[in-house]
Amino acid sequence: MSAVTHAEHEAPAPVGGKLITPVTVFLAMLVLAMAAVLGVRFVQGIGAATNLNDGYPWGLWIAWDVVTGSALAGGGFATALLVYILNRGEYHPLIRPALVAALMGYIQAGLSVMFDLGRWWDFWHIFWPKYAQMNSVLFEVALCISAYIVIIMIELMPAVLERFGWESARKKVNRLLFFFVAVGVLLPMMHQSSLGTLLVVFGPQVHPLYQSNLLPILFLSSTIGMGYAAVTIESAISSMGLRRPFEKEILAKLLQVGRILAGLYLVVRFGDLLYRGALHYAFEPSVSMLTFWIENILFAVPLFLLATKEQRNSSKLILLSALSMAFAGIIYRLAAFLVAYNTGAGWHYFPSLGEMTVTVGLIAFEVLAIILAVRLLPILPAMPGKRTSS
Amino acid sequence: MTIDRRNFLKLAGRTAGVAAVATTAGVAEARPNKKMPEEAVGLLYDGTLCIGCRACIPACKEANNMPPELTPLKVNGEQVEALWDAPLDISGKTLNIIKAYRDGTGEHKDQAKDGFAYTKQSCFHCVDPSCVSCCPVSAMTKDPINGIVSYSEDACIGCRYCVAACPFGVPRFTYDTPKPKISKCQLCKHRLADGKYSACAEVCPTGATVFGKVKDLKAEIERRKSLAPGTTTTFPRGRIGGGDTYTGQVGKYVERVYGEHEIGGTQVLHLSGVPFELLDKPELPDIAPASTSETIQHGIYYGLLAPATFLGILVAAARRNMRPEDEKPKAPPEGGTP
Q1: Which whole number is the average pLDDT over B54-82?
Q2: Where are the beta strands (DSSP E) in chain A?
Q3: Which of A290, A302, B155, B238 gives the lowest tally of CB atoms within 10 Å of its CB?
Q4: How many angstroms separate the CA atoms of A292 and A248, rounded?
Q5: Residue A20 CB-density burial (10 A; 0-12 exposed, 13-18 middle, 19+ buried)
Q6: A22: exposed, middle or buried (C-beta count within 10 Å: 0-12, 13-18, 19+)?
Q7: Which residues are within 8 A (CB) of A210 and not within 5 positions of it... i.e. 6 or more apart?
Q8: How far is B49 from chain A (nearest CA, A)?
Q9: Under CATH, which number does the domain A11-376 receive?
Q10: Hey, what CATH class is B41-292 in?
Q11: Domain ranges of chain B
Q12: pLDDT single digits (tens) A287-301
C-alpha cells in the first residue's frame, strides 16, 4: 500500500455560507457574558470573579483553558508530524483544519493566561532578559507557547495568501514553510511536556499517583493522542454542522496512531507507578484513586474499540474512541492540577460561576473564530460531486 | 517515499534516543540540593518559650507597613467586622502569625494530651526554595550572602506559581485588588541596614523568637537540647549576641528540629514541646522539589542539545517531504512548476 500523494486530494476551499446564523449569534452572546465577568475581574481584582485562594491559586483558567485546552489543540502539531515529518500524505486534508483549531486553542490559552495573571501589564517581563528565569518550567512554557502561536500563524499564511490571490508571496512563504513546520512540531512537544513538568516542583503537594519525574513523557504522549482525538471530533462536528462527509477512513487510521500513543502512555503510567512503588495508592480510596482509574480506563477504551478492521469501519466506534481518548486526557490534566493537588487542611476550590462563564465564553470565541475561518478561508477540502477515494 | 508503521517506529525510536541522550546528560548533571550560605541569617522559634502574647504580629505589621485584617467576628450571634487587626492566618495582609494547638481540657502547656502549644507561621527562608526556582521572572530571589528570600513587586507578573509551589504555603496573594502582589516575610531585610533586625524577634518578650546567624541559631539549639528539661537558664532575647537575655525554664523538646532537613533545610528553625504534626507543619522530604524540577528541566534542555538535534531531524524530514508544489492548490490550475 502506498501513501496517497497530496495532489490526489481535493484542494481546500472556503465553505462559504451565511455568517450570521442562530449558532453564531448564540456564541457571540456567550462571548459577551464573558466580557461582563472580565469587567469585574479587571476592575475589582481576581477574587471578585473567581474562587481562587492561596490554597488553590491556580484554578479552572489554568487547569482547563491553558493546560487542557492547549493539549486538545495538539491536533495541529500532531497532524503536521504525520503529514510533513512522517510523509503520510493521506492525512493532508486534515492539516489545515487542525492548524486552525490549534491556533484558536492556543489563542484561547494565551487569553486565559492574561485573564489569570494578577499583574498582566507586566507580562512582557517573561521575554525580557533582565527578568527571564531559566530554571523556571513556567518560563519555558510561556516562551514556547507564545512562539508557537506565531508559528501556527505562519503555517496558516498560505491559506490566507491563497484566499486573496497573492501568488508570489504565497510561493515565497511556501518555500520556507518546511522550516516553520519543523519548529511548529518541536515547540509544542517542548511545552506540552513541560506542562507536566510544571507539577514536579509542587513535590509532595501532588498525590503520589500523579507526582512523577516522568510527567513530561506522560503529558507529551497523551497530548498527541488527544490531538488526534480532537481532530476526529472536530471533523465529526464539521461534518454534521456543515453537512460534509465524515472522513471515516482517514480518521480511523489517524486514531490507529492515537492508539499506539495511548498504549505507550498506559505502559509508562503503570510502569512508573510500579517502579516508584506507588501502585498501591491505586487501591487506596481517595478522589485521586477515582480519577486515576477513570482516566486510565478511558485511555484503554480505544485499544479495544478499534481492534478489528470491522470496528474501524464504524463511524460510531471511531467517534466513541476519539471521545474516550480526549476525555481521558482531559481528566488526567484536571485531576493532576486540581484533584491530586492538596495544600493541606482547610483549603477548598470549586470554580465560580464567573470562572465558568469565562471558560465557556472562551470556547465560544474559539468556535466562532473557527466557523468564520472555514467559511471565509480555504481550510476544508473542497466538496466535489463525488468522493475521490473509494 | 512510503512511510509505514515500521518507519514510524524507526523515527519514534530515533526521537526516544535523543530524549535518552538528553536524560542521561541530565542525570550526569543532576543538581543536588543547594547549600546553606556561610553567613545565612534566620530565626529560631522555640514554642516552649512562647507565651502566645502575639506581640510579634502587630510589630511585623508596623515594620512592614501591612494593613490590618478586620476578620469578621461573631458578637451576640451577629456577624460583625472587627475594629482591630485580627488575622487568623498569614495572608496578603499578614506575614507572620502565632497559632495555637489545643487538646482536651487544654490545661498543660506543651503537652499533646489535655494541653496546648504555640507555633509560628512565616516564611522559612529555604536553603533551596521552590518559589525562587519556579518564578518565571526572577521576582523571587535568594540573597547569596545572608540567604534571605526576597520578593520584588516590580518584577512580578502575578502568576502565583510561587503560591502554588511553596510546600509551607507561605507566599500569599492579594485577590481583592486589581493591582495585586505577593506577600511574604523577608526577615525585615530593610531594617538590617540600620543595624536592626526582624521586628518579630525584636519585640518578643521571652526570646521565643530570636534572630541570628543560622550557625549561631543551631549552636543555641544544641545548647538548649543538652540542658535538662525544667532547669533554669538564660536565653538570648531579640538577637543572638545582642546581650539582652531572658531567664526561663528549659523546655521538654521533641527530638526533631523543624526546618533542619525539610526540603533541604531552612533558615528558620523551630523547637517544640509537642510533635510538629500537631502544629500543622507538613511532613516533607529531605530532597528539595526545586532540585528535582531543575534536574529534569535542565536534563531535557541541557545546552539545548536535544531540542537542537531533534529540530535538525525535523527540518531535514520536513524539507524532504515538502516540495512546494505539493502545497499548490489544484484549482485554479497553473502553467509551469517553479
Answers
A1: 89
A2: none
A3: A290
A4: 31
A5: exposed
A6: exposed
A7: A199, A288, A292, A335, A336, A340
A8: 27
A9: 1.20.1630.10
A10: alpha beta
A11: 41-292
A12: 999 999 999 999 999
Take residue B57 and report the three cell numbers written for it: 504580629
Q: Which of A102-111, A349-358, B13-22, B317-326 has the lowest mean pLDDT?
A: B13-22
* pTM of the complete model: 0.90
Cβ contact A118–B3 (<8 Å): no
Q: pLDDT by residue (tens digit) across B256-268?
A: 999 999 999 999 9
User: Across the interface, do B135 and A181 touch by the CB < 8 Å criterion?
Assistant: no
For residue B25, pLDDT over 50 is answered with no
The predicted complex's ipTM stands at: 0.92
Residue B219: name the closest of B243, B240, B191 by CA: B240
Name the CA radius of gyration of chain A, rounded.
21
Give the whole-angstrom CA distance, residue B87 versus residue B98. Answer: 10
What DSSP string runs through B4-51?
-HHHHHHHHHHHHHHHHHHHHHHHHT---PPPPPTT-EEEEEETTT--
Q: Is the Cβ of A216 closer than 8 Å to some Cβ of chain B?
A: yes
Pair B95, B66: CB distance under 8 Å: yes
How far apart (Å, rounded) are the C-alpha atoms in residues A286 and A291?
9
pLDDT digits 0-9 by tens, A234-272: 889 888 887 788 888 888 888 998 999 999 999 999 999
Ranges of each domain in chain A: 11-376
| Interchain contact A157–B (C-beta under 8 A) | no
